[in-house]
Amino acid sequence: MRVAFIVSKSFTERRHGGFGWLVRLVGEELVRRGFEVYVLAWRDTGYPREYSVGSVRVVTYDYHFETRSVFRHLRDYWGALEVIRDVDADVYISIEAMVETLLAELVKRHSAHVVWAQDPFEWSDYELLASVDPYYRISRARFYMNRLVFGAAYRWADLVLTQARFYMRKLRELYGLDPGRVHYLPNPVHPIHEYEVKKSEEPLICYLARMDPQKRYWLFFELTKRFPDIRFVTMGKPNVLYEDRYKEVISKYVDLSNLEVLGFVPEKRKREILDRCWVLVLPSIREGLPIAMLEALAHRVALLSSVNPDGLTERFGYWARNDDFDVGLKWLLSNDRWRVLGEEGY
């Protein structure tokens, strides 16, 4: 059986993020179980139309996220349509509803179609993200067009999954989707055995995410300045669209002796750091339910975040709803609260 994931990004050296990591992890597991797996994704600069990541075949098409040209988008979607037809999968799995999802449902009617809700957007979400990232400034007309297209994609799907429980309400409000049709399937993480985790002797605070504006990574660097006697480490790099802005921001903090900036790290290295880490800081202005949170909990790492999806942050860490990360870090380090909450999270 041939399975094709439809996703905005694959996991490449140029583009990292939760969606790409999720597809890679699930795709490799499906291959191990005997499925033929494809990934249909936007093409990153410098990459060919087709390439392989392990045993998963990646087929790409042009998509210009930054353009506001309707004709450019139509041309890109025509390329996506050709890829969908050429791959000819038995099952298409969309990581969040996209225009490409609806195209697949229309042209491959005899295939099965799955949509896995990862991060549906309301108008307030666009407004919030646009406050730190101009690429998210869209017109009301475009929002309502997206709402119409994505809603149809969800309704026509044979199976709808959600990685977070609070999305059931959101899908109903956005698209009129009956919550009874939505099945809860949390995102996976690699299993972490108890004996594998050995925490650092001294406090170690980490950041694990892209260095994109919505992540507000500079607040992590500011926290590093306020606690000069504590070690901080970052894992992640910016999307290609934000590389110049990242260089400008990081130039203000590179001389901090207690800060280690690693950029993108391989999976093995990431796990080693999480094994030793005490607290994960995620200062995003907005998130869905980030895989980084699940990975942290799997490694007995407490959470310090400005977002609280499904109540995870306040259950297993400190919810910095007022961006009071310094207060939260002091609270977590006091009386070994980070250790108790990390254990409970695990």
Automatic annotation (TrEMBL):
Residues 196-313 form the Glycosyl transferase family domain. It comes from the Archaea. Residues 17-187 form the Glycosyltransferase subfamily 4-like N-terminal domain. Gene3D superfamilies: Glycogen Phosphorylase B. The keyword DNA damage does not apply. The keyword Transferase applies. CDD domains: GT4_PimA-like (cd03801). One of its GO terms (molecular function) is glycosyltransferase activity. Keywords: Transferase. This is Glycosyl transferase group 1. The lineage of its organism: Archaea, Thermoproteota, Thermoprotei, Thermoproteales, Thermoproteaceae.
